[in-house]
Amino acid sequence: MKSFIAGLPKAELHLHIEGTFEPELMFKLAERNGITLPYESVEALHKAYDFNQLQDFLDIYYQGMNVLQTEQDFYDLTWAYLEKVNAENVRHVEIFFDPQGHVDRGVAFETALNGIHSALQAGQDKFGITFGIIMCFLRHLDEDDAFKTLESALAHKDKIIGVGLDSSEMGHPPSKFQGVFAKAREEGFHIVAHAGEEGPAEYIYEALDLLKVERIDHGNTSMRDPALLKRLSDEQMPLTVCPLSNTKLCVVDDMKNHPLPNMLAAGLKVTINSDDPAYFGGYLNANYEAISDLINNDKENLAQLAKNSFDAAFISVAEKQRLNADVDSYLAKNS
Ligand code: ADE
Ligand code: ZN
């Protein structure tokens, strides 16, 4: 099944570019920027990746980000990710970045955005991987700060396709950001939000009803609410599910208990994604491999997940049809 997954054309829709910062590259860029990391070695840093909950991870994730200083750093980070996923037959990526995580420590919005964007453009030219950039608001900060961030983005609508919501979920419901998301919608951005990773099903309702999201990032706690499951299924609202993230952050206690089969049985439009692969132990194919057993190692089921990723992407109908046809012909040749 590993080789079938490896060759399957697929899209990645839930990926924090700062979460692809591998320890080796972090040490290299720290040296280049004259920064001393609070870890002695790559191995010592790896050992720190032991999380009981989302906040444990976020503390280390924000610390790692401090190393990113120049446009070249953001370019190198993004390029390293593209080389990995090119080898995994990923055909389209929609990438999150956290502008406030950079601006608040003195790195300009444009430094981050331009570095990420020029690498993605180079990746499209060289590998044919199409892309979109989604900027996320940090939900532990206030709505005024998110408004300022949105203001910065308005000059870069040619580079940013959407707006999302991430960081510490508990205590920071979507309702806190209703105003800024209304403005983002008016400005024509696509809308997504992390909801129901740790937070209650109520946060998923708020993301749908108040933010008017087009995809739910994670959405695990919808499993506790049959009426919500029915609604997500009726609306065919895509969920960007991240299996290795879920076990690493103890959202799910063991992969064998992952809700993916129940999500599919409930008729949800599920996609598979890697979230923060440098921290969670695997890129996109590793995430497909992690859940393959749960769907009976069935090639049609795996192909359906890949097709869902194209259906849920912010691309044209013609692009979706072209990419889904590639999945169908791959399945026909490899069944
Ligand atoms: N930022 C990066 N990864 C995240 C996740 N899984 N949940 C919330 N915020 C994040
Ligand atoms: Zn995420």
Question: How would you describe what is shown here?
Answer:
The protein has helices at 2-7, 23-32, 42-47, 54-65, 71-86, 99-103, 109-127, 143-153, 178-186, 201-211, 226-234, 243-248, 260-265, 277-280, 284-292, 299-311, 317-334, and strands at 10-16, 90-97, 130-138, 162-166, 190-195, 215-218, 238-241, 269-272. By secondary structure, the chain is an alpha/beta fold. Strands 1-2-3-4-5-6-7-8 form an eight-stranded parallel beta sheet. The longest helix is centred in the middle third of the chain and has 19 residues, at 109-127. Residues 14, 16, 166, 194, 217, 275 line the site of zinc ion (ZN). Zinc ion (ZN) binds next to β1.
Task: Record the strand order, biggest sheet.
Answer: 1-2-3-4-5-6-7-8
Summarize the main sheet.
Answer: 8 strands, parallel
- How is the CATH topology named? TIM Barrel
Poorly predicted runs? none
CATH architecture: Alpha-Beta Barrel
The end-to-end span amounts to 11 Å
Strand tally:
8
| CATH homology group | Metal-dependent hydrolases
Report the total helices.
Answer: 17
Overall body shape: globular
* Total discrete domains: 1
Identify the CATH class.
Alpha Beta
Order of helices and strands: HEHHHHEHHEHEHEHEHEHHEHHHH
> What fraction strand?
5-15%
Question: How does the helix and strand content classify structurally?
Answer: alpha/beta
- Average residue pLDDT: 98
Radius of gyration: 19 Å
Hetero compounds: adenine, zinc ion
* Helical coverage, percent range: 40-55%
